[in-house]
Amino acid sequence: MVSARGRAAAAALVILIGSALVASAEDRASSGYHLEEGGLLFFYRGSTEPQQAYVAGNFNGWTKDDPAWKMTCTGTDCALEVDASRVGSEGGFYEFTFRIDGELVDADSRFPHTIHCAGYGYRHTIPELGQR
Fold this sequence. Notes:
This protein is α+β, with helices and mostly antiparallel strands. The chain has 3 helices and 9 strands, in the order ααβββββββββα.
């Protein structure tokens, strides 16, 4: 699982990214993941407080409401920590985004490991899992 140091680093990254982007409410949103010692921490920061937030990706059938992938939210910040083996193993291609209040949210194209899927929008990728 992700260590306390890893969780603190991810939280600091969310704060840093959120404070550095000041153009609009949409620009202040940030999201992504942190991988450490077999643990995977997904994090999302939006401009409004979500009622429901899920991690949705090709590794879980782009879930709409699976409780195993539901994020815990405090205000506009949401997080979910899972064992990396739940997502995948060596040699795979893993992509995800967040389902916030029933809608898939585009990843920010300015961040590393982001791809554009024609007709679907921007998605995060997790290349480290495919390279293990």
